[in-house]
Amino acid sequence: MTTNLFDLGGRAAIVTGGNGGIGRGIALGLAQAGADICIAARDQDKAKAVQAEIEALGRRCIRVPCDVDRPGDIDATLDATRDAFGGLQILVNNAGIAFMGQPERMSDDEWAAVLDTNLTSVFRFCRAAYPLLKEDGGKIINIGSMYSLFGSPVVTSYSASKGGVVQLTKSLAVAWARKNIQVNALLPGWITTDMTNPVKEEMPAMYQGIVDRTPAGRFGEPEECAGAAVFLASRASDFVTGQSVAVCGGYSIS
Ligand code: NDP
Q1: How far apart are CA 169 and CA 187, in angstroms?
Q2: Is the pTM value of this prediction over 0.85?
Q3: Residue 127 domain-assigned?
């Protein structure tokens, strides 16, 4: 056995939304640590580009068209991963969306869309992956947010969904600890991606307020989420479960 606690050689990971933003940063980090990767996402042009980056690192990579809101796509992603890599040891539930707007004007459809993608799909993916993950012991990393911790006046459904991700993470961690499946959440702070670019580009006062409140004095980059993800995916975290690890430049404690 390798002496490197963080070595992911011989392990297979699914990263939902691994075709861009934080998902891409995490997928590349897991691949650099030795894992083979399945990118599960909708936009295949973006997925193709990340697949090439991962293969350039010498890792195997498949991409499966997957809308996490469709249970059939989840099953197909798991089947393709098992067929390509012989099993699954790491699941990263990263795919997510946000709607901005005052809660008093939010429609049922907007509420349901965010809860379906950000929370229900996470439960469904974990449930469907359980038989594979328990074969060798496994790691689940669910992506939360600073809004797992704080309320927001303008992303109510997002905040509710990300709070739910943390509670779901704790419950699955308790349920599956004896199966040697560790379930943890990674809570990014404000990270530069397609999701937050409108804040940077169109809402300068809000952007500056976030930078000022963040002790590190800046937004993070997607690649900066990779270190915590590698830790939570590796043997180094075998006695860590049900936890939320914030990667936020200090935003959560200021
Ligand atoms: P991006 O908008 O860059 O990425 C979102 C990803 O989610 C895309 O890859 C997209 O894939 C995927 N996705 C969305 N809906 C679906 C769906 N129904 N099925 C499959 N894939 C889907 O945003 P981020 O990288 O910033 O966000 C990634 C995660 O990090 C989200 O869960 C987000 O809530 C969380 N987060 C982000 C923060 C930030 O500051 N950026 C802060 C805290 C948390 P496709 O292109 O195929 O649609």
Answers
A1: 12
A2: yes
A3: yes
Catalytic residue check, 158: yes
The residue whose CA has the least distance to atom 36 of ligand 1 is: 145
Does a structural domain hold residue 213?
A: no
Whether ligand 1 lies within 6 angstroms of the CB of 60 is answered as no
For the domain that residue 161 is a member of, what is the CATH number? 3.40.50.720
Q: Are strands 181-188 and 138-143 parallel, antiparallel or unpaired?
A: parallel
SS3 content of the chain, % helix, strand, coil (to 5): 50, 15, 30
Q: Which residue is listed with tokens 């869309």?
A: 113
Task: Determine whether the shortest distance from the Cβ of 21 to ligand 1 is under 6 A.
Answer: yes
Please count the structural domains in the chain: 1
The answer to whether 223 and 28 are in contact (CB under 8 A) is yes
Q: Could you tell me if the CB of 249 is within 6 A of ligand 1?
A: no
**pLDDT for 2-37, tens place per residue?**
689 999 999 999 999 999 999 999 999 999 999 999
pLDDT tens by residue, 167-211: 999 999 999 999 999 999 999 999 999 999 999 999 999 999 999
Determine the structural domain holding residue 62 and report its residue range.
2-191+223-245
